[in-house]
Please model this.
Amino acid sequence: MCIGLFIGALCLKTLLGRILLLTVMLIAVILLFVFKKTRKAGYMPLFLLIGFLWITGACDIYNSTTVSSGKYVFSGKVSSEISVGDEICFTIEDINVNGKDFKGSAYVYYYGDDFDFSSGDYVVIDGKIISDEYNPFDGKFASTLTGGKRYTVLTSDCKLYREDSPDFIDSIQLKVKENFYEHTRQDTADIAVALLFGDKSFINRNLYDDVKVSGLAHTLAVSGLHIGLLAAFINFILKKCKAKGWLRLLIVGILLFIYLIMCDFTASAVRAYIMIICLSFAEVIGEKRDGLSALALAGIIILSYSPLSLFASGFQLSMCAVAGILLLNKLFIRTLRRKNKFTEIVATSISANVLTYPITASAFGSFPVLFLLSNLIVLPLMSVMFIGIIFLAVFTLIIPIPNILVIADYLLLPFKAVVLACSSVGIANMTVSGLGAFCIGYYGTVFIASDYVFLRRDLKIKIALSLWAVSTFLFILLNYLGV
Model:
């Protein structure tokens, strides 16, 4: 299906290309399913066909539901807090142009002197809409679109149209953010909001650059780490209350789903949620837990709903990090020859980074050299920090004593100290470039080295070296030819 998405993206620009590829794939599927001996092999072209249709459909839907770039007078609902700096910035949704509603949200740069609206209000804007051009191979475009953004708006004329209030979920998010920003330090609030909701839109750019250099950027994107910690904490409480397996699964599923709503269903959070529910369900019914199958199911569900997620760096990093842990974690633990908390953290950090390195190199152009050291210090404390921040956020919502949030300044002190220490080291960040064709051998070697390939060790080494040699040759040849 993933390959089909790529093929579809290649051919979607021309109608002839779509028709020809669709015809060939239909014939292949029919022929393979007609003959019994090849029936099993028919599933691959079938999924290729589904992927092709999905990506071309996504293109058509995007083009038919998007405002073309230009100058308009339109209305929208303010859906975020309003950031005041060199310009006033906020997000709007429910966009209506000439009486027609359009999907997606817009990030607004307002260059006026003042404003009389707030989150939840409807505004009328006279300004320029810049619509992102559909390009699935552009990871930045895919990441932006999967986050709900379709437009950038530039205006100096924005007026209140109708006062309103945010919906229940948005009001909770805004209240939590307001409490943290008013009663804690700026850097504490930035980190706490990112930890809770994965919202890095208003985080101080210098702070976030330092976090990336330290190798801890993954902790500020709601992912398996956060979902897993929250699920483990809820399970712990329910076990102490003597709750049965099915009841625990139901309660964990509902509470985590509410948390997903708070996090706007980011791909990494959805992936973690599906995997946790699958693995917990298997445990409840007494079946073997299969991490790779759960990961594959999560990928299929996410891509079925949002095919462009395949090209988004967040989805790629999330899937590859978990795949790396599943494929290589046990191998690294055996290599370290001792199983304890220290070796588990080392093995997990290395395993996750091995598979995400090419994506990191391609998307960000740099690699955090000190990722292992920073993760060794921070990850053992993450459960205390994350659960503590959640507890403080919920407590201040129920009991309006926001001054208690000052505890967060001390709770996140180790995180900030590690970030500051790593960012001050000159060699902490290494500039790298995408590996291109070399990725073929890189990922092939990783998979062959894993415990999921049942071959003799000497044969594994021969195949891995052959893949490595071929991919290296292709990498050098393509770079020499300038392709």
Summary: Residues 438-481 form one domain.
